[in-house]
Amino acid sequence: MTLLPTHRIKTLVALSECPVCKRPIVCGGGGIAFASATFACGAEFVTANEEITVSSPCPSGSKFVVGYLNDLAAAAATAAAAAEAGVP
Ligand SMILES: [Zn+2]
Known about the structure:
Number of domains: 2
Order of helices and strands: HEEEEH
Bound molecules: zinc ion
Oligomer: single chain
Structural class: alpha+beta
Strand content: 25-35%
């Protein structure tokens, strides 16, 4: 079964941007048996065991979540300050 791994390598080599956050590729390439792609966000995908896999995950999802957590904390702080000031 060489057809599927070959197409997985071609698929990875064809990427020009992170498929998660769309930051551009900074390093990548591939040959007959292996390919890798590293993106400006820090994500790196490689072929291993004849599949495309994650070597370093894209951090965009985590950045989105911590932004949400910081917004939640700011809203709680604002509400607590209003309660201390006696504002209804
Ligand atoms: Zn990314």
